[in-house]
Amino acid sequence: MLPPTAPHPDDAPSRGLFLALEGGDGAGKSTQGRLLRDWFRERGREVVMTHEPGGSALGTQIRQLLLHGDHVAPRAEALLFAADRAHHVETVIRPALHRGDVVITDRYLDSSVAYQGAGRDLDADEVRSLSLWAVQGLVPDLTIVLDISPELGRARRGAVHDRLEAEPDGFHARVRARFLALAAATPERYLVVDATEDPDQIHDQVVARLETLVGVTP
Ligand SMILES: Nc1ncnc2c1ncn2[C@@H]1O[C@H](COP(=O)(O)OP(=O)(O)O)[C@@H](O)[C@H]1O
Ligand SMILES: [Mg+2]
């Protein structure tokens, strides 16, 4: 287990707002990300939309290796995701939060815990501490989990599957359970929504929760 690292000096209280969208592919992360981006922009906030893996130039290359290559050894996979995340946080997310922007990331640390920890044979706590080390402890102010069944996720994704999406439904069921367990462990940092509801209804639930967070302009 990696030792905890000292907090990063940029993570003082007076920074921007860091939001993560999590959930299986097809859950509606991109849809909700767009609605959320527009909501903040209408309120005059600068918004940085980003995603993992691949939210930086280096990350785009790592993403290619991860999602479209052949078999990747589980520990190599966990390290590559963590390397992508370390670089993404250092070059994209922390600078934006330092400017006071809203950062909306499509997937973050919990995806590693859920996919590498629950879906494969690595210990979830080890995967989590690896990623926390990589990002010097930066966790979102709010993580929105779009909860969807493996069957519906598969139906919404259509015929296009990358290496992880192509895993059987049992894998996706373990991933789903892990997202829910992470949310239950620190509920003050999470909003779990039923991804089968109408996109506008989901957005309303997200906004209602955001309005209770410090740093959000109503
Ligand atoms: N709440 C919803 N109800 C029904 N369909 C949805 C909902 N949210 C998204 N979709 C549709 O499901 C598909 C996947 O949505 P998307 O936002 O791309 O998911 P993700 O980014 O999580 O993979 C798209 O065709 C989208 O229009
Ligand atoms: Mg998407």
Automatic annotation (TrEMBL):
Q: Which part of the chain is the Thymidylate kinase-like domain?
A: 21-206
Identify which top EC class this enzyme belongs to: transferase
- In this chain, ATP is annotated as bound at G23, G24, D25, G26, A27, G28, K29, S30
Q: Which UniProt keyword terms apply here? A: ATP-binding, Kinase, Nucleotide biosynthesis, Nucleotide-binding, Transferase
User: Which Gene3D superfamilies does the UniProt record give?
Assistant: P-loop containing nucleotide triphosphate hydrolases
Q: What is this protein called?
A: Thymidylate kinase
Give GO terms: molecular function aspect only: kinase activity
Q: Which gene is the coding source of this polypeptide chain?
A: tmk
Species whose genome carries this gene: Arsenicicoccus piscis
Reading the lineage from the top rank, the first entry is Bacteria
